[in-house]
Design goal:
alpha+beta, Chitinase A, domain 3, 2 domains, 7-stranded antiparallel beta sheet, 45% helix
Length: 226
Amino acid sequence: MNRQCIALLHRAILGVILFPLLVAGPANATGQEDAKALYGIGYLFGEQLRELELTAEETEHVLQGFRDQLLGNEPEADPHRDMDAIRAFLDDRQARRASKTREREQAYIREFIDGGGTLTESGLAYEIIEEGSGDKPQATDTVEVHYEGRLTSGEVFDSSYQRGETATFPLNRVIAGWTEGLQLISPGGRIRLVIPAELGYGERGAPPSIPGGATLVFDVELIDIK
């Protein structure tokens, strides 16, 4: 957990700070294509730091630390000695974000159930769109599926339809919500799964596409049982 947080911080600092430094006047030192590339590097890395939801004042502290390191200035504090404080800050921000996400996602699940969905004992919510025919898969089976995965905001983070090919995998090697949900339909069937974080990617999520505590919405079509 802590190692993951520190790695996130390293990636995030690199990206967020590169942005203002590189765009301050890149055309004077580099060509336009280099400037675009450098801007892109800063922007993409900056996506990581957004998860910390820093205030403007907090962002300035991060910027100052990066500038001091980059320019060889005397540091105001020794981050190696302050590693416990860094870990505590990152853990706190992750917990805050996950808590807010969880509240929002629980409301989404309640609305889904009120609209006709079914809630299982584990906390999985689902709606069978088409039953299919034949035997239902067991957890130990390998299945072939087409699917689209979305956040509750509607943002698509994964789609076999977009890739233009089905996916095949052992049903007991995926997130728990999939393992449970796919056993409810037969080949040719389609189901919508609303998977809470505890049956998905948990409090850590799968950054940057899946935030911690996120509920996932999957539309899945069971093509075949291998």
